From TrEMBL, chains A, B:
Mg(2+) binds at residues 93, 95, 97. This is Phosphoribosyl-AMP cyclohydrolase. The lineage of its organism: Bacteria, Bacillati, Actinomycetota, Actinomycetes, Kitasatosporales. Residues 46-118 form the Phosphoribosyl-AMP cyclohydrolase domain. Its main location: cytoplasm. It comes from Streptomyces atratus. InterPro entries: PRA-CH, PRib_AMP_CycHydrolase_dom, PRib_AMP_CycHydrolase_sf. It catalyses: 1-(5-phospho-beta-D-ribosyl)-5'-AMP + H2O = 1-(5-phospho-beta-D-ribosyl)-5-[(5-phospho-beta-D-ribosylamino)methylideneamino]imidazole-4-carboxamide; 1-(5-phospho-beta-D-ribosyl)-ATP + H2O = 1-(5-phospho-beta-D-ribosyl)-5'-AMP + diphosphate + H(+).
Length: 127, 127
């Protein structure tokens, strides 16, 4: 049905630190999921996607940058809405296929106006 | 480079609530990323992957169940290690393409023995 991601070759023009690029395990689309978490409250704000360049920009600009799969372009969170994410720390997981970005979120993280993208659709658990 | 996920048809044998299955937006591989968060401390423990059946089992058994991309099988977290995840709540995000599971994690979430999968590989930020 699917296969686990394996290390892929970053684009030759990549700016990401080669030591990071070498261990990053991207999906077939060249992306890794990136979880944004409010650094002090622990709220999980949203999940976005990053390619090597988005991760590079997130590490070097202080602002969280994603790759928009729907718009097919880089997306600096808050550039349109003002709801920016200032980067506090960035970590890879043990498999180097997921990014956790701890941020200071200004205002709502969700485009709906909710504080997080997970506030509105809580699923029922079986009793 | 990639396209945004669109709703796909769940397998005919799917047990997942049809109302949830109808709005779930799966990747090309039929999976959605699932973030596991410790319900009381807010720690982001790990990211796994779920198909419809894994989400159904997570909602109905009280134990977090993932689809293992490397082993190509369902994986009830803790069945081997004893480090189980008791499900406290499950939410979809605003796009219905990511799951957030709040759990009570027994012991280490990470196979390395770390409490979370994000403890060991903190990336340097540019000054």
């Amino acid at each position: 049905m699917t296969s686990a991601p394996t290390p892929s070759t970053p684009p030759p023009s990549g700016n990401l630190d080669p030591a990071i690029a070498a261990r990053l395990k991207r999906g077939a689309d060249g992306l890794v999921p990136a979880i944004a978490q409010q650094y002090d409250t622990g709220e999980v704000l949203m999940l976005g996607w990053m390619d090597d360049e988005a991760l590079h920009r997130t590490l070097t600009t202080g602002r969280c940058t994603y790759w928009s799969r729907s718009r097919q372009e880089y997306w600096v969170k808050g550039d349109t809405s003002g709801h920016i994410q200032r980067v506090k720390s960035v970590a890879l997981d043990c498999d180097a296929d997921t990014v956790l970005v701890r941020v200071d979120q200004t205002g709502a993280a969700c485009h709906t106006g909710d504080r997080t993208c997970f506030d509105a659709d809580v699923l029922p658990l079986a009793q």
